[in-house]
Structures are given as C-alpha cells and as structure tokens.
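cron nightly-structures :: item 1 of 1
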Amino acid sequence: MGRGKVIFSGVAWTVINNVVSILYGIISVPFLINYFGKEEYGLIGIALSVNVYIQLLDMGMTNSNIRFFSEFLAKEEKDNVQKLFSLTHLIYLILGLINTILLFGISFFVKDLFKVTPEQAITLKNLLLILAVNVTFSWISTCFDQFLTANELIDWIKKRSALLKLLQFIILALTIFFKKSIEFYFFGYIFLATIILPLSIIKTKKIAPGLKLNFSFNKEIFNIIFSYALSIFSFSIFQFLALNSRPLILGNVSGPGAVAEFNIMNTIASVVTILSGSFMQVLLPIFTKMSVASDQQGINKIIIDGTKYVTILLSFLIFLLIIAVKEIFTLYVGEKYSILSPWMILWLLTLLLSHRNVMTSLVFTEKNLKSVVIMGAIAMILAITGYIILVPKYGVGGVVIGFTIHEMIHTLFYYLYFLPNKFQIDTKYVFSHSVLPVWVVLGGACGIFFLILSNIDTSIPIWLSAIIKCCLLGVVMLIFVWFVLLNKNDKKFLLQLIAGRDN
C-alpha cells in the first residue's frame, strides 16, 4: 500500500470511528435516560469519569511508544523493538493493577465521595467493580495498538473499534428489550472492550511472528522513552487545563446558563474537531520513519501537500457551517440561541488553524520537546488569563477569544520557530502555497454568499434555507477547489487514491 493510501485510509477510518462513537452517544443517551431514569444513567457517567482521571497514569506513554516503535522498526533494531514491547507490557500490567486497586478501593467509599442515595451507592459500587475487573486487559491491549500503529495499521485499529461500537448498539437493544439491569448493560458495554486484546494479539503475531509476548524491565529503553513521555504528558496536561477550564470558569463567573451555551457551541465545533484530530497518530509513525531515513524531500512533500489537502477539507466544512450558522442554532436548540452566531463564527474560524495538526505530527518526532512544553505552558497561562479577564464582560464570548489566543500561539510557534529551526521546513512557503490560497478562495466565496443571502428576504422553512445555502456554496467551493486550488499533480494523485492505485 502506498504512503498516500496509508494516510488516507487511516484518517478516513479514524473519522468513521469517531462518527460512529458520536452517533452511539446521540442515539443511546435518550434510550438509556428513558429506561433507567436520569439519576441512574448519571451513575454510568460518574463511573466512567472516575476511570478517565485514573487513566492519566499513562503519562504520555502512548505517543512515546508509537514514536520509538516507529524509530526502531525503521532502523530494523529488532532487539530494541522486543525490549520496548516487553517493557511496555510490564508497565501497563502494573498500571492496570494500580487502576484496578484504585477502582476497587473507591467503590467502598462512593457514599462519602459522591452525592448519591444508599440505593444508588450500591449500583455505583457495582459499576466501579465491573470496571475494576476489566481495566487491566484494556491497559495491556494498548501496547498492541501502539505497535500496530507504528506499523501503519491504524486503519485496522479504527475498523475494529468501529465494529465494537456497533456491537454496543446490540448490548443497548438487549438491555431494553429484555428489561435488564444497569449492571447488565454496563458489563456488556465494558466487556466488549476486552475483545480487543485477543484480536490485537492475533494481528500482532501475524505481522511480527517472532515478537515474544512477555513482561520484562530494561533500564536503557526505559530511560530513552521516559523523558520523552514526560514531555508529552506535561504538554497534554497544559492542553487539558487550557481547554477544560473553560466551562469551569464560565460556571463560576457567569453561571450554568453560560455553560449550557458553551456546551451547545462545543457540540457544533466537534463536527470540525472530529476531522482535525484524526491526523496525529496516522502521521507520527510515518514522519518518524522518514526522519530516521533522513528523507527530507519526503517530509517536505507530506508537509506541503498534506497541509494543503487538510486545509481544503477543514475550510470546506467550516465555511459550510458558517453560512448556515443561524439556521443550525435555530434547528438544534431554538431561535433564541442564534444570538451566539458571531461567537460561533469566531470559534469556527479559529479552527481553521487546526491545519497545523499535520505539522504537529512532525513536531512530536523530535526527542527534545522542552521548547514545545514551555510554549504549551505559556499558551495555557495566557488563555486562562484571557478567560478570567474577558468572561465577566463577554460571557461565553470570553472563552472563545481566549481559545483563539491559545490556538494562535501554538500556530505561530510552529511556523516561526520550531519547524524552520528543527526540521528546516520553509514554513513561509507552506503557508503561502498550501494555506493562504485556500483561505482566500473558499473564504471569499463564503463571504460573498453570506452578504448576498443575508439580504434576501425569504419565507421558506428554515431547514430548507439551510440546505439550499449549503448546497449552493458547496457546489461553488467544489468548482473552485477542482479548477483553481488543485494542480495537475494533485488531481492525478487524488484520482489514483480514489481508484486504489496510489504508489
């Protein structure tokens, strides 16, 4: 399979898996609430939230292992692959057991830790114990996924994950049809995740039959991955705080109404983030192997072409959302929320900066990430400071502006400092060749449409108005993309990719 095909398939199946997950949430929530009741359903959210925080024990090892597995495979260092594989198994076994012990311990204090009735406390305890039984298997399976990702098999991983999510629909249906308990549903939901382990073992043995499935500690390999993993973990924490502090600050300053507005806008924005967040794990092993091979030409090509294609996809989606933003608010939550449209447009325009995710994948191939961590800390501090200063005056708009500041700092850092100095990437050329023309052409088309359509008084149903707007703009943008933005080589590559003949 050609490299372009690998990237396309990996990203496509990542998006599909994310869409299936979102659809499961949209469909399952009303059924579960109606069947179990809001309070009982909330117990599932508590149990899963507790486990999410415990899983921070990973401390950046996922990206670290993908990066070093890729490097060792590229160098054909089979001994180091085996040592890292064995070490990772040992670490994840320990973390899995710690996770199990913590869940087991917390389960006996749920009445003191959470605001629940005695009956709910029993149910929550049972849910946590179900999690405790299964989490060790989930941790161990993670190692196999990291190895498979390094072998550029993320499309297989996402196909498997999408299949498991579809099987969870069956668990949901069985629970409601046979009138089973919340424990039955939760056990089925969680147990399906344990199926991942034997599937991953089989796939790993198929592509690497000589790889031994054992547990052993290697100090040399541990020292290599630990500092890198710690940098990734630190960076992730700063990202987590910058993004997840938004509803907390809004709730503290402006109240629950502002948080509700934020959640509504965040749901709309997630349509874009599903796409923009699909590149990291796909490109990280590819860039790592290219760096090992000193393939500067190949790196430059993926950065230039990849950024161009990602910018086109993001711009196409974002400008369609912008042109129909008022209609989306009205149809989704009611006309009164359409006053949020200006802030939503700013949020969506900020997400245009997500094209840098192609570059981010290259950034994380670098072993020394000290400057990246420092930049992440500065961006977090400025973003949170922005939230605190601006929220009292602008409400939800304050966190949108703060988020824009956060994203601009990251983008400027990559463009102006890190990529030119660490990887000799001509970022001025990347921006002028792959980004700016797309923004000008597609953004210009959206702006003209916005001005024209905003002055047209129509009495047609709002849903029909949204469809007409998006269809008209979509057709115009597709024409511009094909005849203006894509050159002869781009068209040839895309046609070969669609036909499955990528070389």
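cron nightly-structures :: done
The chain has two domains: 1-217, 227-503.
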